[in-house]
Specification:
Bound molecules: 2-acetamido-2-deoxy-beta-D-glucopyranose
Signal peptide: 1-34
Shape: globular
Domain Amidase: 61-457
Strand order of the largest sheet: 1-3-2-6-8-7-12-13-11-9-10
Strand content: 5-15%
CATH topology: Amidase signature (AS) enzymes
Number of helices: 21
Distance between the termini: 47 Å
Protein name: Amidase domain-containing protein
CATH superfamily: Amidase signature (AS) domain
Keywords: Signal
Radius of gyration: 24 Å
Largest sheet: 11 strands, mixed
Number of domains: 1
CATH class: Alpha Beta
Number of strands: 13
CATH architecture: Alpha-Beta Complex
Helix content: 40-55%
InterPro entries: Amidase_dom, AS_sf
């Protein structure tokens, strides 16, 4: 049966006309609601493009995030404070963009960033590690990484919440809780843990309450929340990023790193924050040698997995056996192979396992924390507390707001009882050096591995005690809708390789999606 051509033609004309009208309407709506529609999930690169094409200003973008924080943060509690000067900084970025030649501005110019609340800013914001004890303390200067962000023209949007004192007050229950903003929530499933301690940075990135963010890690605090909230986290080599002006746990393991929605965003942030800082001179000078000429962006290669040797340590995956997550990882292994990686899965584990049955980290950390925190508190210009002993007393006095009876402060009390770097601590330090050398390092070198592949944050201890880098990339969602990540860990200074691997995996899988219930 023949159709009537004139009618079909007519219909298609009407359709075209309708399409034209609706696209006009859509454009108008898009202009009116640019913020509500297209800024969600936008990468720093896309935002820069929109800036340049005059489709967006940094002020509009900053307002978009401020509105989202207003709307979502009462539920998610990923942010403790917003910066009263954020819009002013955005305006300045908008002015500078007009005045300066295209191409001369950093990838973060005009881009709003959230900072974990243990990273000092010398401005109207407080720096408290989530505790009321440090409210109204005055820091001597911006943290080293913050000084770099300001120079790059980034908009300091606010302070992200965290497990209080970067999770060195109480045990790993109560992850994501701090007195100043309460319990941070996993936006994918409000009854699941967001993990910590950089919980707020991860929550905020997942829920689009900022463009990019910084977290810190001593043992798992970037990699775990990144995994649990479907974002990308880079835990850099020790000293690659300055810890100057960061409320410490231990300078032997602390590191500052990006937490973002994509590998490319995280790499853009990394490029801005790495480098020497006189306030963390020894470690940042030592690690400067790892910074590649031309920065890290050049390693965002779609075929980055080609020829890479990746170690799979089976026991790390044991606890998933028989679950859909295990199946998903099997499929990821196939993807890695298909993208040209060589998977090495018959690894000798004897020495590596010892790392996980040793308690040296806890012994050393306790003594180091007391020394490092006391130094930080002493250097403050103004502070209600000047020592760990003061903080313990504060928590006892303000039991109600600090939930001291309920959550305790066991790590604080143990640390206060330590007495410097004594014989026991020295033995613990030697043990860790040996365990790292005979464990992770040996495993990597003997098998000529580019990275070790592990699920979620299972490998963090090995990375922590050696000052090694790791990158977590979204890898899936479990039966409860809770995200999990895949982690690529390597030897010191291996960021270029890890970025190639992480980007190759991300581009081949594209697993991240925003939490659905927030729409
Ligand atoms: C810092 O804390 C003080 C004391 O609570 C408060 O008045 C001030 O608003 C805080 N700063 C910001 C930016 O929220
Ligand atoms: C260091 O290792 C030795 C030998 O394994 C052990 O006896 C000692 O208890 C360890 N030290 C600490 C602080 O864990
Ligand atoms: C969230 O997780 C809980 C288990 O902790 C589960 O019972 C619930 O169904 C999950 N919610 C969603 C939306 O998946």
């Amino acid at each position: 049966m023949a159709t009537d051509p004139p009618l079909a033609l007519l219909q298609s004309r009407v359709l075209l006309a309708l399409l034209a009208i609706s696209s006009l309407v859509l454009q108008t709506v898009a202009l009116a609601q640019a913020q509500a529609v297209s800024l969600e999930e936008a990468s720093a690169h896309e935002l820069q493009l929109a800036f340049r094409q005059n489709k967006l200003t940094s002020r509009q973008l900053t307002n978009f995030y401020l509105n989202r924080i207003r709307r979502l943060n009462p539920l998610l509690r990923g942010v403790i404070e917003v910066n009263p000067d954020a819009l002013r900084q955005a305006d300045r970025a908008d002015r500078e963009r007009k005045a300066k030649p295209h191409g001369s501005l950093s990838a973060l110019h005009g881009i709003p960033i959230l900072l974990k609340d243990n990273i000092a800013t010398k401005d109207k914001m407080n720096t408290t590690a989530g505790s009321f004890a440090l409210l109204r303390s005055v820091v001597p200067r911006d943290a080293g990484v913050v000084a770099r962000l300001r120079r790059a023209g980034a908009v300091l949007l606010g302070k992200a919440s965290l497990s209080e004192w970067s999770h060195y007050r109480f045990s790993s229950d109560h992850s994501g809780w701090c007195a100043r903003s309460g319990q941070g929530k996993n936006p994918y499933n409000l009854s699941a843990t967001p993990c910590g301690s950089s919980s707020g940075s991860a929550i905020s990135m997942a829920a689009n309450m900022g463009a990019v963010s910084l977290g810190t890690e001593t043992d798992g605090s970037i990699l775990c929340p990144s995994s649990s909230n479907s974002v990308v986290g880079i835990k850099p080599t020790l000293g690659l990023t300055s810890r100057g002006g960061v409320i410490p746990i231990t300078p032997r393991q602390d590191t500052v790193g990006p937490m973002c929605r994509t590998v490319a965003d995280a790499v853009n942030v990394l490029d801005v924050i790495v480098g020497f800082d006189p306030y963390d001179d020894k470690a940042t000078r030592e690690a400067s040698k790892y910074i590649p000429r031309g920065g890290y962006k050049q390693f965002l290669k779609v075929d980055g997995l080609k020829g890479k040797r990746l170690g799979i340590v089976k026991p790390f995956f044991d606890s998933y056996s028989g679950t859909p997550v295990a199946k998903a990882f099997e499929s990821h292994f196939n993807t890695l192979r298909k993208q040209g990686a060589v998977l090495v899965d018959r690894l000798d584990l004897a020495d590596f396992r010892k790392i996980y049955s040793d308690s040296s980290e806890g012994v050393a950390m306790s003594a180091e924390f007391k020394l490092a925190l006391n130094t930080y508190l002493r250097d403050l210009v103004v502070s209600p507390v000047r020592s760990l002993a003061d903080v313990i007393a504060f928590n006892n006095k303000h039991k109600h707001v600090e939930k001291t009876d309920e959550y305790g402060q066991a790590f604080f009390i143990a640390a206060e009882a330590t007495n410097g770097i004594d014989k026991t601590v020295k033995s613990a330090l030697q043990n860790m050096t040996r365990l790292s050398r005979d464990g992770f390092e040996k495993l990597m070198r003997q098998n000529k591995l580019d990275a070790l592949v592990t699920p979620e944050s299972t490998v963090t201890l090995a990375l922590a005690i050696g000052g090694f880098p790791g990158i977590s990339v979204p890898a899936g969602y479990d039966e409860d809708g809770v995200p999990y990540g895949i982690c690529f860990g390597g030897l010191r200074g291996s960021e270029p390789t890890l970025i190639e691997i992480a980007y190759g995996f991300e581009q081949a899988t594209k697993i991240r999606r925003p939490p659905s219930f927030l729409r």
